[in-house]
Amino acid sequence: MTITGLDRLNQRRERIIRQLATIKHKTKLADRKVETRKKILIGAMILQRVNNDSAMKERLLTQLDPFLIKPSDRKIFGLPQIERRM
Fold first, then answer.
1. What does the alpha-carbon distance between residue 66 and residue 23 come to, in Å, rounded to a whole number?
2. Block means of pLDDT (10 residues each) for the chain, length 86 residues?
3. What whole-number distance in Å separates Cα of residue 71 and Cα of residue 58?
């Protein structure tokens, strides 16, 4: 069986599609890595300020209280467990 011009173009197209998928995946991973780094740096800054300022710690806990729902997350910050209504 001989490969026609159309077959070669289809093979090339498939190769390009795979290359595009790889590039998109790598870009998504890089973006996610940057977002994770931002969260770490912001968290470190806030923790530093909270450890040096009790009023800021209270403000943070007040804001976290309605935000945190999971019992394990609330426990980390010493917040009381939420009563579940049935």
1. 40
2. 85 97 98 98 96 95 94 94 77
3. 19
